[in-house]
């Protein structure tokens, strides 16, 4: 009797392990699934390239048409590469982004930068504050550097620019009353 209990317990363990394996594979496959991309053809191609570099993809990503937004939002589009709007599962890209433009022109480095920027915004969608979103963006960029996917000199300059954001934020916080 003890032998049959052991056998059933082992069989049960195998079934549970198999189910866990299948559900984790499904989760992994789902996280690499297609994102809905709303953009012109050239932008869609480079966004798809950037998304292929990410550990998982956002639900929806869109290049926002400045003509469709309020004037105060339109001004912001000239200053940012990407942003999110609370309550919407969308990463918005600015058509004025130099990074997006560089990627559209075929720059491999800009495609990797775009991936890191999208990753930053996805962190916000997951509830991260600015510091945590920057940490995630920098972490992905460092992975690209370590894996030698980007030119090391350019990569380190970009990493320095990312790091300099922390100093700017600290100085702005210190100036507030």
| Overall helicity | 55-70%
Could you name the ranges where pLDDT drops below 50 across 5 or more consecutive residues? 2-32
- Give the N-terminus to C-terminus distance in angstroms: 76 Å
Which whole number gives the mean pLDDT?
Answer: 79
How many structural domains?
A: 2
Spatial strand arrangement across the major sheet: 1-2-4-3
Q: Helical element count?
A: 7
What can be said about the biggest beta sheet?
4 strands, mixed
Structural class: alpha/beta
Q: Got a strand count?
A: 4
Q: Give the CA-based shape.
A: globular
Approximately how much beta-strand content do the residues carry? 5-15%
Give the SSE layout.
Blueprint: H1 2-31, E1 36-38, H2 41-52, E2 60-63, H3 71-77, E3 82-84, E4 90-93, H4 98-104, H5 108-125, H6 130-146, H7 152-175
Parallel strand pairs: 1-2, 2-4
Antiparallel strand pairs: 3-4
Helix pairs in contact: 2-5, 4-5, 5-6, 6-7
Provide a descriptive summary of the structure in words.
This protein has helices spanning 2-31, 41-52, 71-77, 98-104, 108-125, 130-146, 152-175, and strands at 36-38, 60-63, 82-84, 90-93. The protein has 177 residues and is of the alpha/beta class. A hairpin with a 5-residue loop joins strand 3 and strand 4 (90-93). 65% of the residues lie in helices and 8% in strands. The chain folds into two domains: 1-31; 34-175. Mean pLDDT is 79; it is low at 2-32. It starts with a helix and ends with a helix.
What are the main properties of this structure?
alpha/beta, 2 domains, 65% helix, globular, disordered N terminus
């Amino acid at each position: 009797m003890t032998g049959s209990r052991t056998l059933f317990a082992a069989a049960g363990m195998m079934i549970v392990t198999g189910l866990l394996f299948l559900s984790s594979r499904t989760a992994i496959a789902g996280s690499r699934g297609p994102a809905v991309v709303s953009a012109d053809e050239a932008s869609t191609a480079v966004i798809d390239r950037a998304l292929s570099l990410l550990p998982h993809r956002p639900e929806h990503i869109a290049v926002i048409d400045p003509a469709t937004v309020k004037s105060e939002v339109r001004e912001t589009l000239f200053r940012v590469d990407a942003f999110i709007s609370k309550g919407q599962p969308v990463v918005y890209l600015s058509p004025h982004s130099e990074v997006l433009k560089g990627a559209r022109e075929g720059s491999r480095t800009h495609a990797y930068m775009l991936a890191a920027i999208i990753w930053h915004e996805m962190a916000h969608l997951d509830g991260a504050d600015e510091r945590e979103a920057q940490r995630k963006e920098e972490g992905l960029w460092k992975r690209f550097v370590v894996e030698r996917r980007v030119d090391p000199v350019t990569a380190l300059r970009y990493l320095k620019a990312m790091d300099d954001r922390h100093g700017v934020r600290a100085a702005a916080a210190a100036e507030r009353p």
